[in-house]
Amino acid sequence: MKLLWINNQFATGPYYGYSIHNHKMKQALLEAGVAITADPSEDFDIAIHITNPHFFKPIPGKKNLLFTQVEMSEPFEWSETVGLADLLVTSCTHSREVLARHYTGRIDICPEGVDPSLFPCWTRRAPSPDEPFRFLFFGYLGERRKGADPLFAAWRNWQASGRMPQNVELYVKSSGHVNGRKYQLPAAAPRALADMFALDPEKRNDLATGWPLGTIKDTRNLSAKEIADLFNSAACFLSPSGNEAWNLCLTEAMSTGCPCVWTAHSAMLDYADSSIGYPITDYEMIPFYRNDERYALGAMPSADAILARMEEIYRDYPAALERGRAASERMRTRFTWRQAAEKFIEICTEVTK
User: Mean of the per-residue pLDDT values for the chain?
Assistant: First the structure.
């Protein structure tokens, strides 16, 4: 079997997941002995497109496999484009359910993975009262659906409640570049976000109004080693996005043993539960708009539920560490890129019979 590999891009921001998926899946397939070419003039069995449907351009006269993902619920905006594929592969049950409403052919699920060599389990301890207890958030701030709004509301509510411990901090990691260009916040972004991005990467925002006190922002482009170090610096990883097709950052944080909070919706239901972390089950499905037109439904978690999970972890950190270790064991034994490649080879082999 020989595969034509179409997508080799690397980008941060909204296409980070597809970029890492392309690179890691290709690497794992090569390590498994699969022949791969980037030259369409060579003989090959299947053209592999791991991409957003917007960028899908099938090779005429050839078998085209589109590995695509859907984060949101109805309506699905690329229903006509996916129909051009001979086979669809996606990463989770949620994506398949949405795609199946628009595609009558075969749809296989192939989970993504983690690299245990880059994200090994880190031995953690409870921070002392005079050490920072860091809540870490990775997220794309350009879109409301990624959960920053309810998280920031939860943080402000915690501050206003008088219950917030003195040593907690919120570390916000977001992309500073998209496709090689400096990332610009949308014109409609709150002033607080604009203020945050005006500060230096390691500097706390001590503004009297706007961005909450006790937060740190970071827009650097980081290596995998630096990302792992950031996970290891955190007492808890927060992923309040309710709309994911896999959530690489969450699985990588889990692989390091960091106690994690996530919204119990979309892709996360395929690999995460309360035995390995802190799911947020209180959320509502709300419409999302683009250019004043509704384009999808998505899950928005409750700010109160996010805060309750943060307080629970802070109060009983030994229990959180136990769940973190269980999450690491699950990711490193069941959801690696090697295992993802094995499943993908199985799918491609069946298609070429």
Answer: 86
- Residue 86 and residue 64 in contact, taking contact as beta carbons nearer than 8 Å: yes
CATH homologous superfamily, domain 133-334: Glycogen Phosphorylase B; (3.40.50.2000)
pTM of the model: 0.87
CA-based angle 101:106:111, to the nearest 5?
90
With a cut of 80, say whether residue 97 has pLDDT above it: yes
Kindly state the DSSP code that residue 114 receives in the 8-state scheme.
B
Confirm or reject CATH 3.40.1700.10 for domain 2-113+336-352, answering yes or no: no
Q: What is the mean pLDDT of residues 286-306?
A: 88
Integer CA distances (angstroms), 240 to 15, 62, 88, 175, 197, in order: 19, 41, 28, 17, 21
- In contact, 87 and 351? CB cutoff 8 Å: yes
Phi, psi of 207 (to 5 degrees): -65, 145
pLDDT at site 109: 98
CA angle 206/188/242 to nearest 5° reads 85
**pLDDT attached to residue 15:** 65
Residue 210 is which amino acid?
A: G
